[in-house]
Design a protein that fits this description.
With 297 residues, this protein is an alpha+beta fold. It is 49% helix and 14% strand. The protein has helices at 7-14, 54-70, 106-125, 132-156, 162-180, 223-228, 234-244, 250-274, 277-291, and strands spanning 22-25, 35-39, 45-50, 79-83, 88-92, 97-98, 185-187, 196-199, 204-207, 214-216. The longest helix has 25 residues, at 132-156.
């Protein structure tokens, strides 16, 4: 994590704000996250981000363009400037704080999830069905998920209960065919609470970070939420889909379950292979929740 941006990049960002600027590091605690809040003397602010690779840069630019076409400025930031060397983007600052880890009253939390579902439905409904190349890319990704689940199944045999192993086996065999039955949408790609904002003064919900924006399947947006949050808080799931405006159909429910199983199996397998207790715990928790699910995911 870098404490300050390179001087030439800070000077470039300053060209888009009045007066001298200061930079405050607000990166996530991982090597690929390089983000700063750039502030001017009159209270003007923007965010400066260095993307880790060309693919992430292209996806984020496309995500900003999509958001600007279909969602209001009060809910999603606008891209102010970009440069390819280094791969840097400057975006407007939204009011509010990141929802993840924020101590919210239960009623406020429920409202945030309903708002998040409503915003994502607007995002999805504006999407076309993509191209043949987009479909091929999704098919390749789903095939890779299935192969990974099969690899995990072999490694986890004897290490997890039979009902969990049966779910991992189902992920290995069912994911590609289920995915082929669903329409493509343009996705935010990382629709987790770390990318949701709430402005407690106004109650408004905001959305940030378009680095994973791409064509895919709508249920991919819900995998983190199902694996990490909704099993313990079904009220939040209910609120989210109230905002989203429709329940998932049977194919979507099954695919969401199996994609979440695949993710949990991947965490567990990686944790066992690399000796990482945090990933083992995360994997066991996600897989246990999926095996104990009610009839609805």
């Amino acid at each position: 994590m870098a404490d300050s941006p390179p001087p030439d990049l800070l000077a470039w960002a300053a060209e888009h704000l009045p007066g001298p600027v200061t930079a405050a590091d607000c990166s996530w605690p991982r090597a690929t996250s390089r983000v700063w809040r750039i502030s001017g003397p009159e209270g003007d602010a923007a965010f400066l981000k260095i993307n880790p690779d060309d693919g992430a840069f292209a996806r984020e630019v496309a995500g900003y363009a999509y958001a600007a076409r279909f969602l209001p400025e009060r809910q999603v930031p606008r891209l102010l400037a970009g440069r390819t060397r280094p791969r840097a983007l400057l975006s407007s600052a939204l009011p509010g704080r990141v929802v993840r880890g924020l101590p919210l009253e239960r009623g406020v939390e429920v409202r945030v999830h309903e708002d998040a579902g409503r915003l994502l439905r607007r995002w999805h409904d504006r999407s076309d069905a993509g191209t043949a190349a987009d479909r091929a890319a999704v098919r390749t990704a789903m095939d890779a998920h299935a192969r990974e689940a099969a690899e995990c199944r072999e490694a986890l045999t004897g290490r997890v209960p039979h009902d969990v192993l049966a779910l991992v086996d189902a992920a290995a065999t069912e994911i590609p065919a289920l995915a082929d039955r669903l329409r493509l949408r343009f996705l935010h790609g990382d629709y987790a609470t770390r990318n949701w904002l709430i402005d407690t003064a106004t109650g408004r919900h905001g959305l940030i970070d378009f680095e994973q924006a791409r064509y895919g399947l709508a249920v991919e947006e819900f995998v983190w939420l199902l694996g990490a949050l909704w099993p313990e808080r079904p009220d939040l799931r209910d609120a989210f889909f109230t905002g989203y405006g429709r329940p998932l159909d049977a194919v979507e429910e099954r695919l969401l379950l199996l994609l979440t199983v695949r993710l949990g199996a991947s965490y567990l397998y990686t944790g066992l292979r690399e000796g990482r207790a945090d990933l083992r715990e995360r994997g066991h928790l996600a897989l246990g929740r999926m095996a104990a699910r009610p009839t609805r995911c």
